[in-house]
């Protein structure tokens, strides 16, 4: 398939670099301020050399990229809340032209799932968004395989930054502020870590899973959210003395309630993954509990989920 | 889709009982000695009442079921080795009529993968076999999603009976023979447990995964197999003193070598699932390691994998 990629951060860049390996071709790419269109396929090295040197990917703008002759739009711009713009508008433009859309951007499916499905219903194009939940872990594909109506509940550790911090606090007996600074030094946490440590990122993933399981109706506002910023190191020490640990767990329960909160778990619980790992646990009507774990973030990891979606659309 | 189901054991029965929930219809069913064909759809309750009372599902034979007007054949007769008959012949008959085939029977894909793919190449029908590896766990679908060429190695705990026995031996400090008798009482091990405890079942699953990863070429003979029958309880005690445990691990390594053998693992290793749980671990080129765990056997669990395949074929 011919791909147009919006967003030239870690994920967008990895999609451009790996697309050829999957037999697809990137014909257009935009970052936040510039765009490039090459009907015969982009030269990834040349484009990123230019971006690194001049801060732009090409002479054109986002509008030109949206107008390019592509089969599938990959939306990998940063997640935004509320109206989920500009990501939502990008998806809208592609669907209006009967093109397929693959989202890595969580905003449109977390905040405007119903609006988006209405556009899909009117379009000959289709929509997939595996990359929006837990990176490389095939959460959405597994729900699709089992059938959303046969998944009664879902829970998981959905944010690697928060999990890294909790794991380090428990292992070293250090306080939150101390470990956060370490995580920032390592590049595991961003300079402004609020999105991760306050549980918002995990809550967006919960909203997306809830939308998939219940056919829509959820936004971030429907998720009860508590982060990890007020957990003292002493709480983790107390937990450890009792063979337990704390994880930031996102959950959509059987009644359809969605929440993110720190939870006390047995130290050897399947959910208690360590470091930046993520895990998704699905309860099913006929097949018991399924556990899926792996890398929940990262450019190539998330691009793997994007390109698996592109392959499914190509089939 | 209209399904013909071959095999009326736990898996075949669950497929018949659950098909309607998935929007499919079973129009024919055979057990080892009888068959029933109902163009308008079987009455599952009536058929299994008859089987329980008279030992037959109907007046017809397997040939009549193979000749029925179905879209997809579900092959769920017991796994056989070498020529994999009669399962292979059933799949062959369906593909020759350009029908789709879904296998729960491991024999044809473990022992005659290349022969089977040659038949698929000549047919308008397609073949899927998610249920042959680790029951409800979406191992094959996840390999398909990542792309077989991007999965560099696979390993896992692939036999619930052997894992139950090892877990109990370690937990109770009991010997193999003692725990085997207990497992047989509980129905977790069969009267003749050789297939499970000697590693053959796990080895067939390894051969199937190796065929998927490498495009064929493997049979049971290509898998180096050691079971759990000669592990003394004292070995597990020694392991436990060192924070370790033993699991029967099946593996297809980076060089393409396939083997099943007891392996010493850290007690809290992701691979060290307990009881009858299975796990599949995939190493990928761009997405790191993925872990998939859940119930590896059971009628409804395996039927879930069968019906997910039917859904994929229907799409």
Describe the structure.
Chain A is 40% helix and 22% strand. By secondary structure, chain A is an alpha/beta fold. In chain A, β1, α1 (10-18) and β2 form a beta-alpha-beta unit. The first copy, chain A, has helices at residues 10-18, 44-54, 62-66, 87-96, 107-111, 113-122, 139-146, 160-172, 176-186, 194-197, 200-214, 233-241, 299-314, and strands at residues 2-6, 25-30, 35-37, 72-75, 100-103, 127-128, 151-157, 223-225, 244-252, 258-266, 277-284, 288-295. Chain A has two domains: 2-135 and 299-314, 3-Layer(aba) Sandwich (Rossmann fold), CATH 3.40.50.720; 145-295, Dihydrodipicolinate Reductase, domain 2 (2-Layer Sandwich). Chain A contains 13 helices and twelve strands. In chain A, α1 (10-18) crosses α13 (299-314), α4 packs parallel to α6 (113-122) and α8 crosses α9 (176-186). A six-stranded mixed beta sheet of chain A has the order 3-2-1-4-5-6, with helices on both faces. The A-B interface holds A 14, 18, 21-22, 135-138, 141-142, 145-147, 150, 268, 270, 284, 286-295, 298, 300-301, 303-305, 308, 311-312 and B 14, 18, 21-22, 135-138, 141-142, 145-147, 150, 268, 270, 284, 286-295, 298, 300-301, 303-305, 308, 311-312.
How is this fold's topology laid out?
The structure is a homodimer.
Chain A: E1 2-6, H1 10-18, E2 25-30, E3 35-37, H2 44-54, H3 62-66, E4 72-75, H4 87-96, E5 100-103, H5 107-111, H6 113-122, E6 127-128, H7 139-146, E7 151-157, H8 160-172, H9 176-186, H10 194-197, H11 200-214, E8 223-225, H12 233-241, E9 244-252, E10 258-266, E11 277-284, E12 288-295, H13 299-314
Parallel strand pairs in A: 1-2, 1-4, 4-5, 5-6, 8-10
Antiparallel strand pairs in A: 2-3, 7-9, 7-11, 9-10, 11-12
Helix pairs in contact in A: 1-13, 4-6, 8-9
